[in-house]
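Q: Please design a sequence for this.
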């Protein structure tokens, strides 16, 4: 497992979609060998400081160097990692392959199969989707009737959202498919935001994760997944850059064993990567003096003496932080303020808990108080009377 997210650093996640039917077929039919290939690969990047994000879709037939195996379709990296039981197995080799191909570090992965995806969509009541061209849908399961869908606005359940996202027999083929998948991701976001579902989903997250655990796998903790999900909802849509590796960035070829493949044009793909992941194409990071940034962020700070053994420490720390531009609204101890349960990084160490996503305050406090990233915790509690709570222990002041 990677270290916990500190709440302030940029994060990049590889989303891997799997066709679980491949695995079931391998279990039921001896002539079918091995685990599945990835059906979808999307890179997501989130910067909590600039409140920007990016999304880059990679076609599954892209011909790339797979570490330790030579060239192959990028969707076989997951298969090879699983089949050879490499460190990190399928997701580990998929991450290495994408890191080498795109040239960005990836901290986390989230793997979801078709069953978990359809169940998740049904959990939020389906999606409203605008279909821009006639498309052939081939739903899985009890809805398995192939039909042509004309342009229009539709409300789809999970099975039909999946069929829409996977359809590839349009003029644009896999590139259109990638764009539809991004459209679905934004439709999920819009549905959650428009109906105010986020607090309910956050509260239900542990139970939902348990229910979907056979179909969703990740190296993120549930807490970090919730924090990143909440942050993603807070980023304005105009600050989210979308990119698809399309036919202008690759040539169509044939592999040595006769498979149709996409050969990348490296310079073109680097340009797209820089647009999606670089600050230039995304909304610029906030600029100005730190006092102005902190004031605009408006973080309300609580300072609590959590068993430091030093009388008056909360007041003296609050006075210091106020002199440095922080807005301290609560001073005392956890007994006096039970809405803030005591939280420790480790016994004897001061801990800062962010209740509502205030990255400037976090970074400033880390610098002012000499805190490590492990001493920062995030707990999404939008109705708390303070945004950031400092639990002082005997290590502060240093």
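A: Design:
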């Amino acid at each position: 497992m990677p270290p916990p997210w500190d709440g302030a650093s940029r994060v990049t996640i590889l989303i891997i979609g799997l066709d679980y039917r491949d695995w079931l077929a391998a279990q039921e039919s001896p002539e079918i060998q091995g685990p599945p290939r990835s059906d979808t690969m999307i890179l997501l990047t989130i910067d909590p400081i600039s409140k920007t994000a990016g999304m880059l879709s990679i076609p599954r037939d892209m011909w790339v160097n797979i570490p330790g195996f030579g060239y192959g379709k990028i969707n076989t990296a997951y298969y090879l990692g699983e089949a050879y039981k490499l460190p990190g197995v399928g997701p580990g080799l998929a991450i290495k392959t994408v890191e080498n191909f795109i040239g960005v570090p990836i901290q986390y992965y989230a793997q979801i199969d078709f069953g978990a995806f359809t169940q998740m969509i049904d959990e939020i009541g389906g999606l409203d989707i605008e279909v821009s061209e006639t498309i052939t849908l081939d739903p899985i399961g009890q809805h398995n009737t192939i039909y042509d869908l004309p342009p229009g606005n539709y409300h789809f359940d999970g099975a039909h959202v999946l069929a829409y996202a996977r359809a590839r027999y349009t003029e644009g083929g896999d590139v259109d498919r990638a764009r539809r998948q991004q459209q679905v991701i934004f439709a999920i976001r819009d549905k959650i935001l428009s109906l105010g579902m986020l607090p309910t989903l956050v509260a239900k997250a542990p139970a939902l994760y348990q229910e979907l655990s056979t179909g969703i796998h990740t190296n993120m903790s549930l807490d970090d997944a919730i924090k990143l999900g909440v942050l993603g909802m807070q980023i304005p849509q105009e600050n989210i850059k979308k990119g698809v590796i399309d036919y202008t960035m690759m040539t169509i070829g044939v592999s040595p064993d006769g498979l149709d493949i996409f050969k990348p044009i490296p310079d073109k793909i680097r340009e797209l990567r820089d647009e999606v992941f670089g600050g230039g194409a995304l909304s610029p990071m906030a600029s100005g003096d730190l006092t102005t940034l902190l004031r605009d962020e408006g973080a309300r700070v609580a300072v609590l003496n959590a068993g430091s053994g030093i009388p008056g420490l909360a007041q003296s720390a609050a006075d210091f932080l106020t002199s440095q531009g922080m807005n301290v609204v609560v001073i005392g101890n956890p007994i006096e303020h039970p809405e803030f349960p005591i939280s420790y990084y480790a016994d004897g160490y001061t801990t800062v808990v962010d209740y509502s996503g205030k990255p400037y305050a976090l970074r400033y406090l880390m610098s002012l108080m000499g805190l490590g990233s492990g001493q920062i915790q995030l707990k999404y509690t939008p109705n708390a009377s303070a945004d950031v709570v400092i639990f002082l222990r005997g290590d502060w002041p240093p």
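Q: Thanks. Anything notable?
A: Residues 290-392 form one domain. Residues 173-194 form the longest helix (22 residues).
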